[in-house]
Amino acid sequence: MAAPEQLFNTRERKRFERHDIWERIAENGTISAAVMVIAAIAAVICANTDAYEAIHHFLETPLYVGLGSLTAGLTVEVFVNDFLMAIFFLLVGIELKYEMTVGELKNPRQAMLPMLAAVGGVVVPACIYLIFNHAGAHNGWAIPMATDIAFALGVLSLLGNRVPNGVRVFFSTLAIADDLISIAAIAIFYGQSPSTFWLGAAAVVTCALVWLNKTQHYRLAPYSVLGLLLWFCMFKSGVHATLAGVILAFTIPAKCGVKLDSLTDWLGECLPLLDDRYDDEAHILGQHDFTVSTTKVERVMHRVTPPLIRMERLISTPVNFVILPIFAFVNAQVRLVGVDMSTLLTDPVTLGVYFGMLLGKPIGIFGMTFALVKLKISELPHNVNWHMIAGVGILGGIGFTMSILISGLAFPTAQFEVLAAKAAILAGSVTAAVLGMIYLQRKNAAAQEVNVPSCISCYLGVTEPAMFGVNLKFHFPFICGMIGSAIAAVVCVATSTTANAIGVGGIPGILSIQPAYMLSFALCMAIAIVVPFVLTVIVGKKKGVA
């Protein structure tokens, strides 16, 4: 059988190869998580510059969606949080349906352990938050309970084959169940007073979607149109509109309209016919019978892929590389200018969210898993030990996307509480990611003697332990870091980036940058991070050191 690239000329073959490369990049969870993190860093930096007012004004720009007299008024920020995130929830719903159809959630006994662990990872963080906020902001209880599935799995993928597949399956199932609980919490507790009329309209649209599914309609167009109408009805009803994405996902068929057991026989009949109708001496424009026959084959093969998978392929890349970064940039606007840092750091919302994520998640996940196993209700997956479960619990504290979304819903008018929640979410997610990776690699005792104190010291601006204790002994990552730092330094000097202090690094160093130079500093920081990372991953793999 000829290889696919043998079907094309040289130019088309190169395009085919480039497309294949882009597909691998798009499917890489690490890269998509990195893009989202960069967008969040850019948001924090922009929020503390003169650009903040312009960005805030743009986000408050009014938009109108609808047809004729049926219109919905919203701002750019609401459009991102309600409409674009509905597409994200559509992807989450597709993943849920996939797991419930052919994945880990298909077997109730196998799925029970991570799903109940997710319940523990929801209840304990909420309780810790309420302990800190027993006298005040109760409505934020759901903020620390959510795990960001995209970010967390991207961090886990950085560990490569050092983490067995059983851990990935356990964590994926846990994160999906966590998302399902978070979606339910948003729909039940954070919606407005529902409109009976629009809820009824949403129910009618949902029934139409179910009818399309039951009558075996396999084209995506009618589902997409009704999905938009469903979103509009949900938005007008007062129930959070992102729920429309989940409902749409569960109505899209997971089967195909082709009898697969007869497909091979049909293709066996078509191929000789195509061979007979093709004339290699005639121009393709003049071979009408041949092109008609190939079109029929193309239509049939297109329908082999279930609509659910086609929708996933259609939206996964835009969601991971466009929608989530936009969401991160819009919602990570943590403005610290003029804020009393001692008040912010000691605010009950900040403490409740931070410790809910950092302590509540591992306690809840590990504790529930431990109880279920010891009571012989379930058992640990193959090749998974308690050390790995604890690491999964720590990584569960990464609550970026969902937590930020819930914070805006929990405190729609309390700006300081939103600021406190977002600051805690960003700090807690970063801390959980770093600690989780360190913990899951702690079997390397020699490395851990340096990794933990190096990590802490880097946060505080002292980089020598990480430089000499971690990077230097591997040589190549150290060289990559020097290259990235050198390029960043050149850009920094060229842009005249100025700080209020000399020789201050880490978090204090960021705060010392003069506001007028925050954007150029952000560029330099991105260069210093991205260049070494790319060189280490791409070139280092060839050298066997990545």
Low-confidence stretches: none
Question: What does the average pLDDT come to?
Answer: 80
Give the number of helices: 23
- Main pleated sheet: 2 strands, antiparallel
The CA-CA distance between the termini, in Å, is 36 Å
CATH superfamily of the largest domain: Na+/H+ antiporter like domain
Helix content: over 70%
Task: Using the coordinates above, name the CATH class of the largest domain.
Answer: Mainly Alpha
Overall CATH architecture of the largest domain:
Up-down Bundle
Q: Name the helix and strand elements from N-terminus to C-terminus, one letter apiece.
A: HHHEEHHHHHHHHHHHHHHHHHHHH
Number of domains: 3
| SS-derived structural category | mainly alpha
Total number of strands: 2
Rg, Cα atoms, Å? 26 Å
Spatial order of strands in the largest sheet? 1-2
Q: Which fold name is given in CATH as the topology of the largest domain?
A: Na+/H+ antiporter like fold
Q: Describe the global form.
A: globular
In what range is the share of β-strand residues? Answer: under 5%
Describe the structure.
The chain has 3 domains: 42-64 and 71-191 and 324-441, Na+/H+ antiporter like fold (Up-down Bundle); 260-302, no CATH class; 450-546, no CATH class. Helices cover 71% and strands 2% of the residues. The chain has helices at 10-26, 29-47, 51-59, 76-101, 108-132, 149-157, 165-189, 196-214, 220-237, 243-251, 260-277, 288-302, 307-331, 341-346, 348-374, 386-395, 400-410, 415-440, 445-459, 464-471, 476-494, 506-512, 518-543, and strands spanning 62-67, 70-75. A two-stranded antiparallel ribbon has the order 1-2. The chain is globular.
